[in-house]
Amino acid sequence: MADVARRAGVSPMTVSRAFKTPATVSAAVRQRVEEAAAALGYVPNLVAGNLASSRSRMIAAVVPTLANSNFLGTLKGLSDRLRQEGYQLLLTETGYDPGEEAAAVAAVLGRRPDGIVLTGAQHHPSVTAMLRAAQVAVVETWDLHGPFIDMAVGFSHRAAALALGRMVVGRGYRRVGYIDFPHAGVRRFQERRRGVRAALREAGLDPGLVAGVADEGYAGGRSGLDSLLSMAGDLDAVICATDVQAIGVLFECARRGWPVPDRLGVAGFGDYEIAAEVPPGLTSVRTNGRGIGVAAAELILRRQEGGMAAAPVLDLGFEIVSRGSLR
Amino acid sequence: MADVARRAGVSPMTVSRAFKTPATVSAAVRQRVEEAAAALGYVPNLVAGNLASSRSRMIAAVVPTLANSNFLGTLKGLSDRLRQEGYQLLLTETGYDPGEEAAAVAAVLGRRPDGIVLTGAQHHPSVTAMLRAAQVAVVETWDLHGPFIDMAVGFSHRAAALALGRMVVGRGYRRVGYIDFPHAGVRRFQERRRGVRAALREAGLDPGLVAGVADEGYAGGRSGLDSLLSMAGDLDAVICATDVQAIGVLFECARRGWPVPDRLGVAGFGDYEIAAEVPPGLTSVRTNGRGIGVAAAELILRRQEGGMAAAPVLDLGFEIVSRGSLR
DNA sequence: TATGGCTCTGGTATCGCTAACATCGAACCT
DNA sequence: AGGTTCGATGTTAGCGATACCAGAGCCATA
Fold it and tell me: What pLDDT is attached to residue A309?
């Protein structure tokens, strides 16, 4: 920076201003500085800048997994919105392991991010403690059951699952099974299970057809269907914790030659891109994953600007998308 | 840090050592420092540390897209391997836009990452210039046609596509179409197209059945199939630039009631998880996406340790996985 | 007992930038 | 003319760590 300043015939402070707040520098000087910087290939060192200003313009995102998940949408929303403001994303995957999450938060905090976006509202106690102490903007995403560390954006998984269950029941299915998520202890998935079972119970149907699965991904749909059929051979519909599992069920039906939606109705959760593509179309819950990311970004940005002492909680809702997999 | 030092009755320098190089501090002192740090909730400020040591322990990854892609595996391999060494990932998506890539590299360089992982070997000239000037470890991934900025890990897309094409031809298909990638200008996809066409040509078949598509994702398979059929109603096999498109073709076949592999043979590229799940199984090229990420991490780490002045180029190869979508 | 080599600890000088305040003309007002 | 305001620039003092060198004990060896 000193070299650039010398070459442009100004002080280092003016160079700094020419980059950070160009409006505060006269046009002539700004141009001289830009030319000097270009000639010398100068790239401002943000590490030093961050240290001096104690603002890093980095946001950390901590997600359970990227594979086959709606978190990608959230991440994309987040990073798109943040990039516009010159922020960057520090990413960590935790594999649904609370210990990993705690380690990730600890590691990331040392870099003094301006904000941290967490997935879910269920954390190791040390995570809560560290983040409270760090005085950093925190957004918990996807789940909406507090208490929250700071801010939150998501929707009610229970309400969504309840609505989906009611739709299945309303279509006349009577022996409805539910395929759980491999990490069934995660609150988000507990809520989904509860919502579905509540819908069955209120219709006087058996809410006991629940299959726990060990397999991740599509394979979970297959093994879940197997275990549901061993519980109830007359099973006529399946609701899955995620679309990926539901697609696995559809594939298994195709393999068995079972017509969907007549032999078996199928519903998923998440409305992944593939839900609209797979024949005969998968009925699912559309969640606003991208919107969650954008909203999280907005909350953090607004907090940076100093306004907003309160800690908002945003419900972005959901929508049931009806397709051919349900009669 | 000064507070911790005071509380532990040592100098700040010793606190620094207790964290960075515990072996150089006596056990008694180390424990006092750890206790003091815990009591005060001290989290070392890596920003300051980075500035002083001019090593950031951050690696930047620049990928075209995360959705429906094999880059996820690479990213995961990269981040898993790096996390073990205490490094973190700075992520940027560019949407297959070279201008965006240049902007991303410029933005990221200011944070002085210890390494940058790029996708492909085709970049805006400014990217090459910036990275050369920055003296940072660079790994170009996936593609293996130089010249490279620094190091590279990938495989030959042409050889893979050639092998896949030969397999299709070997199974007796005679009117073979190819569905291109939406961003057909990307070198990696040019190579795939060339490999397939070379296989067709050497078998004396028409290499002209190539469909360009505009749609991303599964929809591209559907529209690609449409346009191939309008070119050749007697089409008997389709090779796709990616598995996602191939799955789109399989879905369209199911919709039309066309038996696969008899009415139409289908082959994809990438061996995504779904390829093994979708009936009747998708024949595809298995690429070692995760391995590419791990190898890229290793290269950067080794470069950090000071060894390895040379700039290695690693070919991780590929493998054809034969499944039911080809007779 | 003197010497050299260890291991452990401390002091000092940066790393490259920005916050905060100081300065200086020029423009504007009464 | 004098005072006030404002915009553009410069000066100074850190931000919170680490690199580097120096010094203090301690042991083994001759």
Answer: 63
Residue A316 is classified by DSSP as -
What is the identity of the amino acid at A324?
A: G
Is the Cβ atom of B40 within 7 Å of strand D at any atom?
no
> Please, are residues A189 and A183 in contact by the beta-carbon 8 Å criterion?
yes
Q: Work out the end-to-end distance of chain A between its first and last CA atoms, rounded to an integer number of angstroms.
A: 68
* Least CB–CB distance from B112: residue in A47, A112, A278: A47
Strands A176-179 and A151-154: unpaired
Which of A34, A43, A117, A131 would you mutate first to test chain B, the one with the most B CBs within 10 A? A43
DSSP state of B213: -
What pLDDT is attached to residue B182?
96
Residue B102: which of B136, B130, B75 has the closest Cα?
A: B130
CATH 1.10.8.60 fits A2-44, yes or no: no
Q: Is A220 helix (H, G, I), strand (E, B) or coil?
A: helix
Report the residue of chain A nearest B65, measured CA to CA.
A76
CATH 3.40.50.2300 in chain B, residues? 56-155+288-317, 157-286
How do residues B18-76 score in pLDDT, each as one tens digit? 999 998 999 999 999 999 999 999 999 999 999 999 999 999 999 999 887 889 999 99
Q: What is the DSSP letter of A64?
A: S
Distance (Å) of CA A147 to CA A60, A69, B207? 21, 25, 62
Residue A321, SS3 per DSSP: strand
pTM of the model: 0.93
Strand pairing of B115-119 and B137-142?
A: parallel
For domain B157-286, give its CATH number from 3.40.50.2300, 3.30.565.10, 1.20.1560.10, 3.40.50.720.
3.40.50.2300
Tell me which residues from 12 to 41 on chain A have a beta carbon below 7 angstroms from nucleic acid strand C.
12-13, 16, 19-20
Q: Which two tokens stand for residue A57?
A: 């313009």
Q: What is the 3-state secondary structure (H, E, C) of B166-209?
A: HHHHHCCCCCEEEECCCCCCCHHHHHHHHHHHHHHHHCCCCCCC
Distance CA A182, CA A64 (A): 13
φ, ψ at A201 (rounded to 5°): -60, -45
The DSSP string of A227-267 is HHHHH-TT--EEEESSHHHHHHHHHHHHHHT--TTTT-EEE
pLDDT, one tens digit per residue, over A246-267 is 999 999 999 999 999 999 999 9
HSE on the CB side for A26, CA within 13 Å? 4
pLDDT for position B308: 66
CATH tag, A56-155+288-317: 3.40.50.2300
> Where in chain A do CATH 1.10.260.40 domains reside?
2-44
Mean pLDDT, residues A82-103: 93
Q: How does pLDDT run across B281-327, given as a tens digit for each residue?
A: 999 999 999 999 999 999 999 998 876 667 899 999 999 999 999 99
